[in-house]
């Protein structure tokens, strides 16, 4: 390698390191992008206005490929200055990245070793976005109290009630890539461990008013997760697909009768003794990740059981799932997994009660989620 090549390599390395270092910060003004007009690093001009809409984070508005971008220069009134290259694409390494299904950035699975789940074969990486929230309970035992889903390299999505006093757990850990808590032979890079840097609960959530909805929360990780798109040899993690493109105030509801999928490590049909043993040993009632199909029912059927609920922000299904875990949909095994709901409340034991499960409707909260993401 010549001296010139060495210098060129060092320049590229420093620039890439600078993007990682600067854009990992949480302040809006600290995010930098390669500006289209000169390919040099410039800070995002947050907040900026584009077509009358205010943006405090990256957006994919008007981009033909659905890629996220930000303005780098605005007029005195905060409006983006268009037509002169004062913008740049937001890096997928940032917390504001919105994975795009059309480009294979979310929801797909990595098929490797097989496990048995509810009598059916399930792949170990069938749900590469599932997360487990854990910590230590009052007696110092490890407990994984809620599920969650990875939505980009920095954030997981879960339920607000997971952070109520009900769980009596000191939240200290987020696990990604875990499938079977009883296995000790998983590859070292399969499971990634994080601590929570920030917990963001929806401001309208109230544990005393479950039926009003807003049971949604975000957790920012203390460091970026290594994703499959970063390095397939080191990770099989893939974010779940969210309806990022939804701009309608009232998206069409999931159709009644649709079969959706719920996953988690919660209470199953096993005996109470076996479940207590598992909780004592592994921190979960069922060490192997479970999946089950649930049928969507009408809001009126749900209200007949629980009384008046916030039907605009919720989905009702025949079987409840594990707290904070996802309600998932996909058209076929070749399609990507899309998260349509978050487990909110229902009867404690699946299949032991005629009461349905209630899920927070993700599409209704996309504007709130987007507003909370920081680079």
TrEMBL record:
It comes from the Eukaryota. Residues 39-92 form the Fibronectin type-II domain. Residues 1-24 form the signal peptide. Disulfide bonds join 44-70. GO terms for biological process: proteolysis. Gene3D superfamilies: Fibronectin, type II, collagen-binding, Trypsin-like serine proteases. One of its GO terms (molecular function) is serine-type endopeptidase activity. Residues 116-374 form the Peptidase S1 domain. Keywords: Disulfide bond, Repeat, Signal. PANTHER family: FI17609P1-RELATED, PTHR24260. This is Peptidase S1 domain-containing protein. The lineage of its organism: Eukaryota, Metazoa, Ecdysozoa, Arthropoda, Crustacea.
């Amino acid at each position: 390698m010549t001296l010139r090549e060495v210098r060129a390599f060092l320049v590229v390395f420093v620039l890439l390191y600078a993007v990682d270092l600067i854009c990992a910060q949480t302040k809006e003004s600290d995010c930098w992008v390669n500006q289209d007009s000169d390919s040099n690093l410039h800070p995002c001009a947050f907040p900026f206005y584009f077509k009358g809409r205010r943006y405090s984070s990256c957006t994919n508005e008007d981009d033909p490929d659905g890629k996220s971008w930000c303005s780098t220069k605005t007029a005195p009134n905060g409006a983006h200055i268009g037509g002169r290259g004062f913008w740049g694409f937001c890096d997928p390494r940032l917390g504001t990245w919105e994975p795009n299904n059309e480009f294979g950035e979310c929801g797909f699975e990595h098929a490797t070793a097989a496990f048995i789940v509810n009598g059916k074969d399930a792949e170990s990486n069938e749900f590469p976005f599932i997360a487990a929230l854990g910590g230590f309970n009052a007696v110092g035992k490890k407990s994984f109290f809620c599920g969650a889903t990875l939505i980009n390299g920095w954030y997981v999505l879960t339920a607000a009630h997971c952070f109520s006093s009900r769980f009596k757990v000191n939240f200290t850990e987020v696990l990604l890539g875990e499938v079977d808590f009883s296995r000790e032979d998983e590859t070292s890079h399969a499971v990634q461990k994080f601590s929570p840097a920030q917990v963001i609960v929806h401001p309208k959530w109230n544990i005393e008013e479950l039926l009003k909805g807003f049971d949604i929360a975000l957790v920012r990780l203390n460091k970026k997760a290594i994703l499959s798109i970063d390095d397939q040899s080191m990770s099989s993690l893939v974010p779940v697909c969210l309806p990022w493109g939804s701009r309608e105030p009232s998206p069409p509801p999931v159709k009644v009768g649709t079969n959706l999928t719920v996953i988690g490590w919660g209470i199953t049909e096993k005996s109470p003794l076996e479940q207590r043993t598992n909780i004592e040993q592994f921190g979960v009632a069922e060490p192997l990740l479970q999946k089950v199909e649930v049928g969507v029912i009408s809001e009126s059927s749900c209200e007949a059981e629980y009384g008046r609920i916030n039907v605009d922000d919720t989905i009702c299904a025949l079987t409840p799932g594990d707290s904070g875990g996802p309600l998932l949909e996909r058209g076929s095994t070749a399609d990507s997994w899309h998260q349509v709901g978050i487990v909110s409340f229902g009867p404690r034991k699946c299949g032991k009660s005629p009461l349905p499960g209630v899920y927070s409707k993700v599409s209704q909260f996309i504007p709130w989620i987007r507003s909370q993401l920081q680079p």
